[in-house]
Amino acid sequence: MTKEKQIYKNVMEILVDEEIEYQLVHNKTINTTVKDYINPIEVATFALNRLPSLYASSAEGIQKQKRRAIIKYKKDITKAVIQGFAAVERDPLRRSTPLPSEREDIISDARKSLTQLDETVPKEELSLIVEFMENFLNKIQTEEITAVEIIKLYYLLDFYWEEDGEGLMQNKAIRWYG
Question: Which domain of life, per UniProt (predicted)?
Answer without folding.
Answer: Bacteria
